[in-house]
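Feature request disguised as a bug report, sorry. It would help if multi-protein outputs had a clear separator. Right now it looks like this:
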Amino acid sequence: MNIGLAAKQSGVTAKTIRYYESISLIPKAGRAENGYRDYSANDVEILRFIKRARSLGFSVNDVANLLDLWLNKSRASASVKAVALKHIADVEQRIDELQSIRDTLKNLTQCCQGDDRPDCPILEGLAGLAGAEPQPKGQKKSCHK
């Protein structure tokens, strides 16, 4: 099948498929007599696997590792679990960072009067003037005037 059909069946864009080939995440496609890329049903299955792994936030390097493990039927499931557990730890760290960012932004917006005056704690915070650093969990910063 051509790249358009492979893209449609896998849910991965043709541009992304070409990118995955360029970084050797997937093997280069064979070529049909007309010179166009030619993909098999197995290639589409691999693309679906990659798409699902990426949608769960795995990095391209982790996806390559998972793909190798998936294709290796003699692999130990402990290897797969180790990759997943590391990813969970990374996700939890990002969640903590995002919650800290959210808390800082909430504090800055609560400190802003939102009126016609030019002074703005949000802009001061972004400029580092009002302590826009993320706060430890559960700790709120008071508004500075």
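(second protein starts here, but nothing in the output says so)
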Amino acid sequence: MVGFANMLLQLVETEQPRATLVCWDTLSAPTYRHLELPVYQAHRPEFDAEIVEQLADLPDLVRAFGFQAVAGAGYEADDFLAAAARLEREARGSVLVATSDRDAYQLVAPGVTVLAPQTGGRPPARIDREQVLERYGVEPHQVPDFIALRGDPSDGIPGAKGIGAKTAAALLQRFGSLAEAIAGREQLPARQAESLADPDLPLYLRVATMDAHAPLERPADNVLDRDAASAFAAKIGAARLSERLARGA
């Protein structure tokens, strides 16, 4: 919990956002992804009881900081990130999405940048359109199509048989979308055409696509409440964090 608090504090102090929103999965309720694709995330290791207990306390910590914490049954954290990005773009604001999940590259757009943590104490990498093109070979809005074609072992999305990252990118560069690639598969070599005939590919696309219409209102302005955050840190036994917050350093 202390590590999370320090990371959040550093991020907010560095970026000085209008509002800070922290999103969580709801571990107790399946999403439509789990219901439609039973293998989705089925092989992820379970959190141990101590970590689950700490996760349950994190929303209170976020609120003590003065920020907004969001979760909802049937939705993943990613869906609320997508909804927040959409709402802020509609309000002509800018968005920084801090996440290590590369699925969030699909959110990159004018005014929307992904902040990806790096190792070794380096500052987060700023992922923009050029970075997505460099890493995946596709436009940000094509990332869900790319995942559906290539698959994602970490989430249990099988992808199209025999199609890896390079072929997925090449197909999207040629056709523009998964749907158009499926429609034009007769133009492809027999093995690729057969792979694109998989009737589950549209399902994989739905699973890979963040729901930008998850139930969320545009976050109101919020700022760090140092007094409340310091008191909460003291309550959980994080004396050094409490002192840091109290002295404003």
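Even a blank line would do. Unrelated, but nice: The beta strands are 21-23, 68-70, 95-98, 112-116, 125-127.
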